[in-house]
Amino acid sequence: MLVGVPLETAAGETRVAVTPETAKKLKAQGHTVRVQSGAGTRASAPDEAYQAVGAEITDAAGALGCDLVLKVRAPSAAELPHMKRGAALVGMLDPFDRVGLERLAAAGLTGFALEAAPRTTRAQSMDVLSSQANIAGYKAVIMAADRYQKFFPMLMTAAGTVKAARVVILGVGVAGLQAIATAKRLGAVIEASDVRPSVKEQVESLGAKFIDVPYETAEEKEAAEGVGGYARPMPPSWLARQKIEVAKRVAQADVVISTALIPGRPAPTLISAEMVQAMKPGSVIIDLAAGRGPDGGGNCPLTVAGQTVQVHGVTIVGETNLPALVAADASALYARNVLDFLKLVLAKDATTLNVPMDDDIVVACLVARDGQVTRS
Ligand code: NAD
Questions:
Q1: Do 329 and 45 touch, CB atoms closer than 8 A?
Q2: Is residue 195 a part of any domain in this protein?
Q3: Do residue 188 and residue 279 come from a single domain?
Q4: Quick one: pLDDT at residue 294?
Q5: pTM metric for this prediction
Q6: What is the ipTM of this complex?
Q7: Same-domain status, 222 and 282
Q8: Residues with CB under 6 A from ligand 1
Q9: Strand order in the sheet with 372-373
Q10: Could you tell me if 66 and 2 are in contact, meaning their C-beta atoms sit under 8 angstroms apart?
Q11: Which of 130, 199, 234, 237 for mutating ligand 1's site (highest number of atoms within 8 Å of CB)?
Q12: Is 330 inside any structural domain?
């Protein structure tokens, strides 16, 4: 098949959906790979690296006009007209953006949104949410360490002792677990909160303390079980008790990293304006839910998506695309996720698309086909 790899045009997007490593594999499978000039440059993959493995370098129209287009983000309104009706598109297409999906369907594309893959063992190798959240969790800690004007580890020096940084992690999914592991490697003292009781053991195994908020009613317990491994909105009674416990920790924290999300819903508010006011000057909040909160904030209403702001001496970082700041490795992992997904939808002869409607991963990812949005 003719496989196109366009340069990503979304603001701040530095990743690329195919690296020279995966381009080589696609070539070996019999595909012709056309990469837009400069597509991999920001991810440390220059045009020459693609040419060296047999890919052709082309322009935007050349990459977008292929039978199979591999992207990181959904195509923009300017890109869509360059795509062929009947072409297949694989990327992070934002499965909760109904309007965006309707645009893909109207363009006659067969679209696969990789974020919609189930969180099952078989889907693990193509799980873009995990591969990218892992990077976000790591980068959040590195960024906090950079913004914070003190050490992370406890130090005993001839000039006196420096205390270890206190780090609070809110939301312990893939990003939160990596944030704990990274902060631990830097020597911080860490506490973490999540609605799901199953994460307590994982938090403790990484050497952090779990902020326990016991469930007092059957309704609270049931909500905490979540669905499909994901969190559900918790009853107000539990959230009120969690807020008290979290507020105590946040007031003492040097760094807070919040990652709490509920798929398809606004991110919960976990760090109120009053809590920020009670924090120590010089402390840092990295809000990974930036732009996904109820009013455009994140887990903190004072977060400004895409910006770093200072409030009462507290630095609040609202970076919305942390994986793009680790472009080379984020692309390497994403490109392998894409390659693995393609095994499910490409016929063995490498010339046709095959959409097995009895495959739960394919069905979950399929968002548009034959002019229709296929996701309810
Ligand atoms: P996510 O990004 O959707 O959410 C981040 C975390 O925020 C979650 O742990 C969630 O429970 C938590 N959260 C939501 N509301 C909260 C609140 N009010 N207070 C505190 N925390 C709150 O999570 P994710 O990283 O995408 O992981 C989702 C699930 O998928 C997890 O259960 C994870 O273990 C599972 N998972 C499974 C596989 C697999 O088996 N293949 C792979 C990856 C992830």
A1: no
A2: yes
A3: yes
A4: 78
A5: 0.95
A6: 0.95
A7: yes
A8: 119-121, 124, 127, 129-130, 133, 170-176, 193-196, 229-231, 234, 259-263, 268, 270
A9: 56-58, 32-36, 2-5, 68-73, 88-92, 110-113, 366-369, 372-373
A10: yes
A11: 130
A12: no
